[in-house]
Amino acid sequence: MLFFGIFFLFYLSWVTIQNPNQQVYSYLLFLPTLLFYFYRNDLRFLRKLTAAYRLLLLTDSFILMIPVLMISILKQEFQITIQALIVVLLSIFSPSWPVKNYTRTFHIGLINPRAFEWRAGIRKNGIVMAMVWLTSLGMVWAPAVSLFLLWILHAIITSFYQEHESGDLLRTHFGNVDSFLMEKVKYGLRYQLILLAPTLFVYSFLHPEQLWIIVVFSLINVVSLIFTVIIKYSYYDPESKTHPSSLLQTFGILSFAVPFLLPVPLILNILHYPKAKSKLRSYGITS
């Protein structure tokens, strides 16, 4: 993931800097450094560790900004070089307010407590998701790039469902197995739509010739998320640390890249739905 992130920053730097029509998007390259600056929570530890903690902050920010600095110098866009260096230098002034606490409370508070997978997933992956989402929105002018980034975002979302909650938490649901599974699917599709819709809407406006691709992409995302939920509860086992569902969920994501495998998650949804219902009944969800 780190290698991919560095490679992608170099790619974005190369295609945006020195292009008059796309240069505004180069400022999205500052986001990783800025997010890292505002969201890091190790400042108290660094202050105790060394008196030169500001030098560590400066080094971290400089490393994150290397792609922008190198490409802007190579392309002789020194205005962007200077602006990037200013952002790096700002890192020596550590933020004095708990930005992370405020923003985390805000975006977690918007999610229904019943969708605890999303709450836990955003706590764990929120910064990465924000970076991927903002980059996908900023790269809508480039064919396919935004869709690829949304696919990565969808892959992160499916990882929310790889952990199996305790049986006690499972039994707090008062409906039957069908309503339980429908609730899980409903919340998952709702929050995924909120994340994907802005980029897809703008992308469809800029690339109307790809409308059919956008529709197919959206339908595949829906089927894939339903598949993720069904597979999770087909192999539900709160006592085990490893589950076959994780492997099948990964397969569902990879099927995006292989056209003849696209129908497989839909077929598996139909085949595993009865198994998921049976598994939930065995753990106390009434029928």
Q: Give the mean pLDDT.
A: 77
Assembly level: single chain
- Count of the separate structural domains: 2
Counted by DSSP, the helix tally is: 13
Q: Strand share of the residues?
A: under 5%
Radius of gyration: 22 Å
Q: What is the number of beta strands?
A: 0
Helix content: over 70%
Catalogue the unreliable spans: 96-106
- N/C terminus separation: 42 Å
Describe the largest sheet: none
Tell me the series of helices and strands, N- to C-terminal: HHHHHHHHHHHHH
Structural class assignment: mainly alpha
Your description of this structure?
With 287 residues, this protein is an all-alpha fold. It has two domains: 2-96, no CATH class; 116-282, no CATH class. 71% of the residues lie in helices and 0% in strands. The chain is built from 13 helices and no strands. It starts with a helix and ends in a 5-residue tail after the last helix. Residues 96-106 have low confidence and may be disordered.
Summarize the helices and strands and which ones pair or pack.
Elements: H1 2-16, H2 31-39, H3 43-49, H4 53-74, H5 78-90, H6 99-109, H7 116-138, H8 145-159, H9 167-170, H10 177-206, H11 211-234, H12 244-254, H13 263-282
Helix pairs in contact: 1-4, 2-4, 4-5, 7-8, 7-10, 8-10, 8-11, 8-12, 10-11, 11-12, 11-13
Question: What are the main properties of this structure?
Answer:
mainly alpha
Short synopsis of the structure:
The protein is mainly α.
